[in-house]
Each structure stands twice: as structure tokens, then as C-alpha cells.
Amino acid sequence: MTARAADRARYDRATAHLDAPVAIVDLEAFDANADDLLRRAGGKPIRVASKSVRCRALLERVLARDGFAGVMSFTLAESLWLARSGFEDVLLAYPSADRAQYAELTADPKLASAVTVMIDDVAQLDLVDAARDGGREVVRVCLELDTSLKLFGGRVRVGARRSPLHSPAEVADLARAVARRPGFEVVGVMAYEGHVAGVGDAVAGRPLRSRAVRLMQAAARRELAERRAAVVRAVRAVAPGLEFVNGGGTGSVQHTAAEDAVTEIAAGSGLYVPRLFDNYTSFRGRPAALFAQPVVRRPGVGVVTVLGGGYPASGAAGKDRLPVPYLPEGLRYDPQEGPGEVQTPLLGTPADDLLIGDKVWFRHAKAGELCERFDTLHLVEGDTVTATVPTYRGEGHTFL
Distance (Å, rounded) from C-alpha 263 to C-alpha 270? Predict the structure, then answer.
């Protein structure tokens, strides 16, 4: 029996009392992935990206481990909810335009001390001030640096379109604007190198593309390490009390941690290890989060149909954004249908051994987005479900 076949047997036994669709997290794999992130971080603390987890119980589990510290959230409403729930260090990774939530933040000393907001433009400060509604609390601010690699005099740009602040001078200018502004304090700098951390460099069947990605990422790491250090020096000259410099992501943990200027690493997807993280040379994780759909039809030889399963992930549309049939091994989509909203035909020899009601296990493309489809996660240890915990959705929250 292969390791994957053994996992399937465990998951089927653990969930035999549960009807599919159902989602699980294998805690042994989850904890092993956490250990691997810590190893790659080399002693620097890891801030957990909540977008990639979207389950309070699992955020609490990983933050209870030495080496993990703080949450990186994705909306202001989520940040305040987490702070009210007892999370004491929440960094909002994206600028917000939520005036109602800013009014709450600036009026509550507990929230203001626990939550740090992201900015890259003075206009965002204006929005906060306009939303204060009498609130006088000092707002903790993190400045975001554009990490994109610019080549050929800027004619070619590689990287996500996030912050407009690219040079040390631009970031320092914004730091000075914050320093002059009553009610705000610069406490951090963030630089997320998504073109390094979030792009696989070993894509199956595409050796030339993979080689090009590795060359690009090596150049990007060198350029960013030098520029990030200069940015931090420039900001510290304005804000000597700077508390943290955040960088990285699951795919670049060890590279970012090697930079002296970086004080903490962001990671989250590496806990669940969705399918997008199969194509990396720098690490190998264990799939920890899976979902199962029930077999509801047997249309013919070598074919079964499962209920639903069409859960595409965000990003540019493509096959890499689709879930993949994982267990039993050897199933594939019908190219004429793919994964559907209400039914998904699956082809392959293993289909002939599946009965009506059996479970087919899938892996989602992006980590936390799976939790937007399920109210609960069943936590598996060995061949037993030892706990069932709500996702954000299960607690009544869909923040985006």
C-alpha cells in the first residue's frame, strides 16, 4: 500500500460517520508543516497569514507553538474581530477603506494597541481621520514597500501590483508624513515578494519556464535584499522605534529570513500545503487540508460522478486554479466538463472500484479559500476525528 493509499484509508475510516461534502485537516501533517516552516525561518518569528487559514482554532493552535508570533490579517473587520477574540498582535496586510471599522479602531484603546494598519499613501491617512468620529486613539501604521523587480529601465516589471512605494526615498517620505501627523505612529515595514514566495519554480512538464522562473527569482532576491535594507535604514532614521520588518511568504521563507533587515516572516499557506505549492524546489510540505465529495453516479466503465466540487481559487483563470482529485490516486477530470458547480465527472481506472456513496478526496488550489466553502473543519489524528471546529464562515463571517 502506498503512503497516499494509506492516507485515504485513514481519512475514510475517520469520516465514515460523516456524509460528504466534508473538509478535514490532518493534524499530523499540519504540525509537521509548521515544524518545517520554523526550520526554514532559522529562528526568526513567523507571523501567521490568517487569509491562508481562516479558522480561529487552527490559528490558536499554531500560535501556541514557540516560533510563531502574531497574525497577518486580510481585512480591517477581520482584524478587529480577531483582536476582540484575544489575538493581541494583528497586522492588517492590505489598506482598508472601511470607515465604520476605522471609527471603532480609533475609539477603542484595546483595539488600537492590538491592530496595525497598512498604508502606502497619505490619502489613506486622510480616510482614517475622516472616519474617527471623535476617536482619539493613536493608530499603529505599517508602510508597504513595492517589491517588484524592474528591468530594462522599468520597461519590464515582475511582481504583484501593490504599493506605489518603490525606492527608499519614497518610503521615507511617507514615514515623515506619518510622523508629522497627530494620531498616527509608524511601527513597521512590510514587503511581500509574491513573485518569489508565490510562484512555483519547478512546474511539471515545463522545464524551460521553470528555469526562467528560477533565474528571475534569484535576480529578484538579490535586488530586493539590497533595496529592502536601504528602505529600513531610511525609515529608521525617521522612526527609530520601528518594531518590525515583515517579509516573505511560504515559498521564500528561508531566503527572506537570511536578510538581516527582516525581523519576521509571514507564512500561512505552508500549514495546509494546497496544490499550488507542489511546484517548488525549495521545500516539500505535506497536504494537510482536503475536502471530499460523494460519488453519486456511475455513468459507465471508468467513470464516476461526484456531487459538486467546482471550487476554483482566485487569481488569473487557468487549470492551476482548480482543485485536483487526490485520493484515490489516478482519477482525472473529463476535459469537456471539468469540475462543476453541482456535479463533477471523474475518469480513470480507480473509478470502477468506487461505489455510490464513497468519498473522493480533493486538494484545493489555494489554502484558506477552501474555508469559504465549508462551515466546519474536522480535525483528524490517525484514523479518528478528534475535534470539529468552525471556519470563519462557520462563525458567520465572510470578510471578502
Answer: 19
* Cβ density class 336-371: b for 16+ within 10 Å, e for less: eeebbeebbbbbbebbeebeeebbbbbbbbbbbbbb
Distance in angstroms (rounded) separating the CA atoms of residues 127 and 340: 42
pLDDT tens, position by position, 149-174:
777 777 777 777 888 998 999 999 99
Nearest C-alpha neighbor of 256 from the set 230, 224, 278, 211: 224
pTM of the model: 0.93
What does the mean pLDDT of the chain come to? 93
Given a contact cutoff of 8 angstroms between Cβ atoms, the answer to whether 314 and 366 are in contact is yes
**d(C-alpha 87, C-alpha 395), whole Å:** 16
Burial of 215 per CB tally in 10 Å (0-12, 13-18, 19+):
exposed
Alpha helices in 239-274 (DSSP H): 253-257, 269-272
- Amino acid 154: pLDDT: 72
Task: Write the DSSP assignment of 102-126 as a string of letters.
Answer: HHHHHH-HHHHHHEEEEESSHHHHH
